[in-house]
Fold TLDc domain-containing protein.
Amino acid sequence: MSPDGPISSTILPPRKFLTKTFPTRNSLSSQIITDDHVLEISSWISKIATTCIEDNPYQFKLLVRGSRDGFDVSTIYNICDKVSNTVIILKVKGTGEILGGSLRFHFGDSLRLNGNLKTEKRCYCSNSFCEKPIRSVESAFSVEEYETARGDDSGFGYF
């Protein structure tokens, strides 16, 4: 290096950064549950002891939502009848409790859905049929919101 010598340097072209967008897993559109709830539900479906951490093996496609489609049980039945692999999530009016399960209208007598879920207090949980209590109170309730979704194992999940 000589202080009086010419300076030469190689100028490289600017780097090009490639950005690749990947589909988001569990892109949630549920008004009731979070991504963590979706992962926990997926664990229950898969019958594994630990909660799925990030790889949700199920896709949940929203079929019916109370605030969008109505709160009458017949609406749920008309849309979901003969649709396999369905789950329902309910938010109990006044308590904020979240209940759910595989969609059967009487859930083996542990959860009964009747009439208009929002305006009539005719939904009922019975803990006598369950290994673990569903809720602490066995009284009739109405629903603030519900969502029904179809689940399968074809990949990226959402509600």
